[in-house]
Design brief:
Elements (H helix, E strand, L loop, with lengths): L1 H25 L2 E4 L4 E4 L5 E5 L17 E6 L6 E8 L11 E2 L2 E3 L6 E4 L4 E11 L5 E10 L5 E8 L7 H12 L1 E3 L2
Antiparallel strand pairs: 1-2, 2-12, 3-4, 4-5, 5-11, 6-7, 7-9, 8-9, 9-10, 10-11
């Protein structure tokens, strides 16, 4: 009986240590020098990095022939997604910067100025159109920040056909707020 209790306690302690280690690792700042970007993942977020040395247009990802990072978080109403594309000024007009895979951003003229702890943004609210079906899909917010020589184009959306509510927008902006340029 004593051995069984000791074994359970030892395994519980080991499991607790692993859980604490994973929590600490989740709060670690991650640097992506090839993208000139760093971030600390908020709880529940995951990152897929498609990096390469400049020019960023030479990198292939499932979303475009360019470098970027896709952040995702599962949500009961549909996955939350944040796509970040770094660009130089000369690459801003590239058509691939207006899409995430088959989802094309529908341009709008109206925009807002907003800031976070590091960036000043140009914020545009629109929707994606699926280029395969030609049908509108998700409401999307497109942020553009221009610190120094790099421009970041950031798309945030929830994979649901419902209109984005303020709580969802705050959750998405939490990930955007975690982004910082490497200086």
């Amino acid at each position: 009986m004593y051995l069984a209790t000791a074994f359970i306690m030892k395994n519980s302690l080991l499991s607790f240590s692993i859980l604490i280690s994973l929590t600490v690792l989740g709060q670690k700042t991650i640097k992506e020098p090839a993208l000139q970007l760093k971030y600390t993942l908020p709880e529940g977020w995951k990152a897929e990095v498609y990096a390469g040395e400049m020019p960023w247009e030479k990198v292939n990802s499932p979303y475009c022939a360019c470098a970027g990072i896709l952040f995702t978080k599962q949500n009961s109403n549909g996955a939350l997604k944040v796509m970040v594309y770094p660009s130089t000024v000369s690459g801003l007009d590239s058509a691939k910067r207006y899409a995430v895979g088959t989802l094309r951003f529908e341009k709008v003229e109206k925009y807002f100025k907003t800031t976070n702890k590091v960036f000043s943004f140009e914020k545009r609210v629109s929707y994606f159109t699926d280029t395969k079906s030609g049908k509108p899909t998700y409401e999307v917010i497109r942020y553009m920040a221009r610190p120094e020589k790099t421009t970041y184009i950031i798309y945030t959306w929830q994979e649901t056909l419902n209109k984005m509510d303020p709580k969802t927008e705050r959750e998405l902006f939490e990930m955007v707020n975690a982004l910082e340029p490497i200086r």
